[in-house]
Structures are given as C-alpha cells and as structure tokens.
Amino acid sequence: MFAVIVNTITILIGASVGLLLRKGLPESVSDAMMKGLGLCTIFIGIQGMIEEEYILVLILSTIVGIVIGELLDVDGHINRAAERLTSRFSGKGEGAKIAQAFVTSCLIMNVGAMTIVGSLDAGLRGNFSMLYTKSLLDLISGIPMAAAMGVGVMGSALFTLVFQGGIVLLAEYIAPYLSETLIKELVCTGSLMILAIGFNMLGVTKLKVLNYLPGLLVVPLALKLMQALGF
C-alpha cells in the first residue's frame, strides 16, 4: 500500500502546485491551457484505444452504459451533489465544473493498463516499480490539470487511494478474473470516455460523459457474451 499512498501524495502535490499557478494566470491564458489540455486528452484517448480487439465489446458497453447512465441520470445527480457541496464556498455553477474536473482527472490518471497491472503487481509480487513510475507521471500531469481545471483535480487523489488501494489489497482475489483481454477492453472503453472529455474541453461537443461511466461495468459482461458467441 505504500506505493499507493505515495501516488496519492504526488497527485496532491502536483494539483497544489497547479492551483498556485492558476491564481496568477490571466483568464485568456487559463482558457488556452484548457484547450491545450483538451488536445492532450484527445491524444491520450486515441492512444488508449489503439489496441482494441473486440470492437463489438466497445460498442455494446458504450451504448448499454449510456442507456443506464441516462435512465439513472448519473450526470445530473453528480453535478447537483457537487453543487450542494460547493455552494457555500464557490459561485453558482462552480459545482458542475468541480465535478467535471474530478471525473476528468480520475479517468486520465486511473484508466490505463499501468494502473491495473501495476496495482496487481504490487499486491501479488510486492513489485512497486510501475506504481512509482505512475506516481511521477501523475505528479507532472496534475500540475497543468489543476492549473486549467481547478480544485476538482484534488479529488482524484482520494479516488486513486481507494481504487488502486482496493486492487492492491484484493489482488489475490481479483487477478483470476482480470485477463489481459479484459484489461485491454476496460482501458479501451475508458479511453473512449477520455476522448469524449477532450472534445468537451475544446468546446466541440457537450457530451454528458458522466452518463458513460456505467459502460465500464458492462465491459466484463459484453466480453463474455462476445466470446460465447464466437466473435
């Protein structure tokens, strides 16, 4: 768990530095940084989708996930909850921005083979090298993300602690169910969401990416279905 704690701390440090830089930035520079970060986010999304093997799993998981998300109004509930929590400390409408920054940073920092494989490696073999490498990357990426998007990025530290920590602690029980193929499909589906976030950051689209999140839960079922059908 030590490597996970290190990763959590590096995110907090990187985000804190970014928030300090954000205070002295003109709005025009902040907007330009957001656009640049949006371009980088699109690249990260495309890069994560390159190794897609079961395109039908991606399609099925995304569509079913969107239907579930829309019916449950995941986006609305999270944004309203964030608005209630932050209304005393920030202006109207800031809650949605904080929620978007939180989800964006969580996906960028935790949707990737490095997170899953690194956490399993730490839990099963006590090998923390991959998580230490990820910690350095998150320290660096947290600075521009917080500078562009604000305090919501800080929340990804807690998510990282819970998500990565959970995989490390339960690695022995999770590993048999996380095949290399399933990890790839989870990464690809998550990367599609990252791609959508990038387009939103550029102002090209206004997609409710939070409603896409249930798609990650659909991936294992969709993969089993496709394999059972012989695709």
Write structural notes for this entry.
The protein has helices at 2-23, 27-49, 55-72, 74-86, 94-110, 113-125, 129-149, 155-169, 171-174, 180-201, 215-228. By secondary structure, it is mainly α. The protein is globular.
Please give the structural blueprint:
Blueprint: H1 2-23, H2 27-49, H3 55-72, H4 74-86, H5 94-110, H6 113-125, H7 129-149, H8 155-169, H9 171-174, H10 180-201, H11 215-228
Average pLDDT confidence is: 85
What is the count of helical runs?
A: 11
What is the number of E strands?
A: 0
Helix content: over 70%
Whole-angstrom Rg: 18 Å
Descriptive keywords:
mainly alpha; globular; 231 residues
Nutshell version of this structure?
79% of the residues lie in helices and 0% in strands. The protein is built from 11 helices and no strands.
